[in-house]
Amino acid sequence: MHIKVAFVGNPNCGKTTLFNAYTGAKHKVGNWAGVTVEKKEGIIKHDGNTITLVDLPGIYSLSPYSMEEILTREYIMNYDPDVVVNIVDTSNLERNLFLTLQLIELGKPVVVVLNMIDIMENKGYEINVERLSRELGVPVIPVSATKQRGLTKLLHQLIKTSKMKSEYVPMSVNYGTVIEHKIDQLIDAISETHSLNENVKRWLAIKLLEKDSEIMKRIKLPNWESKNYSEEIGKIKYDYIACFIEEVLQIDHDEETFSDKADKVITNNFLGIPIFLLMMMMVFAFTFSVGNYFAGIFESIHYGLSWLIRDFLIAFNVTDWVIALIVDGIIGGVGGILIFLPNIACLFIAISILEDSGYMARVALLMDKFMCKIGLNGKAFIPMILGFGCSVPAIMTARTLENENDRLITTMITPFMSCSAKMPIYVLFSRIFFPGYEIVVAFSLYLLGVFVAIVVALIFKTTLKKGKTALIMELPQYKMPSVKTITIFVWEKVKHYIVRAGTVIFLASVVLWFILEFNTTGHVDMTESFGASIGKAIAPIFAPLGFGTWEAALSLIAGVMGKEIVVSSMAVIFGVTESGFAFALKAVGFNMISAYAFMAFCLLYTPCVATIGIIKKETNSWKWTIFSFVYQLTVAWFVAFLIYQIGRRFF
Ligand code: GDP
Ligand code: MG
Q1: Residue nearest to atom 6 of ligand 1 (CA)
Q2: What are the boundaries of each domain within the chain?
């Protein structure tokens, strides 16, 4: 038998963890809202059944407040899963059950999964599973996704429920005589024009009473008039839950948990932001201290290896140009990027610890307050933080924003974040020009990115129509970060980095090497090459910024392919030498000020190809895509200009 199962639940209830536990997939688990934005599918086999699991984005309700909610609803209605698995964060049971009631109302067979049962046990709470199941009229299975408990039992239930699918009658909440009467009338009216399943009709009727815009577009009942009952209907649902919740699970709200106590300090209006800055400082300290230590080892290996291979190739009488291609082009470029792998890994280890402990969720909440004050949507901060990893998935999460303007603004500002590809640039330049102050310099660039993003957002905000702002977010309990989650997360990032080095960086290095060795007349000195000519043509634009050399210009052009290519290009241009970059960069005229201006420029200029691609996809507009390209370039130019021109008067 083939069973289609959809995972639905509030953000952060553990859907992805459960999905990964079943499928062995390694999707990103994040201890905060809004991490999964695209649905993901996985297939498992059990007892001769094939089960397709679909992990959907987290939602708080099925009302059309955000694109996620509409999409999830559409998904359930159109693709018709055999079983809807409603995953519930048991430590937030009451709040989660609101969505449960709405799901049950949809009329598809529901199985409720009480996740994080391990946390409840640790706290000594008991849950009356039978009672809950009776009240909801659906099976309830307690599990722990992280501890992998209850998983088989859940599978059995899924198979059982899907077999009895045709007999399924959903429990329905009684909305009182007035509303129930209207529901009945509506069901009759719908029946006249639409032939639909009974369960669905009741759901549509309720949605019409709630004046649900999506449904009103679809079901047109010209003669029907009524007031908006959404508040009453919502309240009755809450009351319904309140009736039995105490008997199912008693949570002692008086007792202060560790999380509550910690939050008093961490989300405090005055202390919150300084603590966050301090945390980020620690992230960089870790990235640079431990990261640089290992990067140094990698660097020696890189240098040694390139000599070894050169000697080896010479010994075999390989032609000079092939040796140069392999050693200077490929090993130079690809290796020049791989030596920063330890820094990247450290950065992601640190970030994932902050995330999985539950801290980042606090930061998002904290920033929400701040963002609201300046008139921005607090949710925009989540893509911004994800942007520290990579703009591509970050821009995809902008979908969770309800308002189209907010989505657009977020898409436009996310590329200003210091993504991990920019890290090698910071490491390289700050180590050479700011020895001893690398952490401060890198941190200042991260802040510069956030600052520019906020300023730009404010400018957009005044030119675009205003929208409402609100962040509803449950704060997860603080917890020990799980080694497994962190390993998966960091490994995915490291793998991605290595794959990029072997593909995009490899190609870019080879191409770059060729255009640096040749021009139309054949093999020439590098300064006469085709590549140098391109660089020279562009370089004057950068002269007022302090780095008007063809080497810098060429690597910036190449960097549009991916920001780390700025570094790999320089490695190809300057070659792998023991004195390394320091000498070469100083020789082409870089100093402290121009190096900083250069880093700032790299941070802000034109998004990389992948990001441009996702901007096009998400905005579905060439106009906005081209705009983002041009305006980021302009912003970057001005910021670097200011830094260089002001800086050189002081230093
Ligand atoms: P999603 O947003 O619903 O996909 O939630 P995730 O799968 O990303 O999980 C959110 C957080 O809850 C992560 O930090 C998980 O490690 C944690 N988590 C998920 N399931 C469990 C569980 O059964 N027990 C505990 N203790 N933590 C869990
Ligand atoms: Mg998820």
Answers
A1: 14
A2: 2-167, 177-250, 272-464+485-647
- Quote the ligand 2 centre to 491 CA distance (angstroms): 18
* pLDDT at residue number 470: 47
CATH topology classification for 177-250: Helix Hairpins (1.10.287)
- The H or E element spanning position 458 is helix 438-463
What is the CB neighbour count within 10 angstroms for residue 505?
28
Mutational test site, ligand 1, from 20, 27, 29, 259, max ligand atoms within 8 Å of CB: 29
In this predicted structure, what is the pLDDT of residue 35?
53
- The model's pLDDT over 514-525, given as tens digits with 9 standing for 90+, comes to 999 888 888 888
Give every CB contact of residue 620 below 8 A, 6+ residues apart in sequence.
none
Q: Give the sign of the dihedral formed by CA 400, CA 406, CA 407, CA 413.
A: negative
pTM of whole model > 0.85?
A: no
Which residues are within 5 Å of ligand 2 (an ion), measured at CB? 16, 35-36
Q: Which CATH architecture fits 2-167?
A: 3-Layer(aba) Sandwich (3.40)
β-sheet bridge partners, residue 46: 49
Q: Is the CB of 36 under 6 A from ligand 1?
A: yes
Residue 90 Cβ contacting ligand 1 at under 6 Å: no
Q: How crowded is residue 130: how many other Cβ atoms within 10 Å of its Cβ?
A: 10
pLDDT for position 542: 96
Closest ligand 1 atom to Cα of 10: 3
Burial class (CB in 10 A: 0-12, 13-18, 19+), 109: buried
Tell me the angle at which helices 341-356 and 272-315 cross, rounded to the nearest 10 degrees.
150
